Amino acid sequence: MPERPYTILSCSISLDGYLGGAGEERLVLSNDADLDRVDHVRSGCDAILVGAGTVRDDNPRLLVRSPLRREQRRAHGLAESPTKVTVTRHARLDAGSNFFATGDSEKIVYCASPALGTARRRLSQVATVVDGGPSVDVTRLTEDLFDRGVRRLMVEGGARVHTQFLTSAAADELHLVVAPFFVGSSQARRFVGDGAFPWHPGHRARLAETRQIGDVVLLRYALSPRFEETA
Question: Which CATH superfamily is domain 6-20+29-222 in?
Answer without folding.
Answer: Dihydrofolate Reductase, subunit A (3.40.430.10)
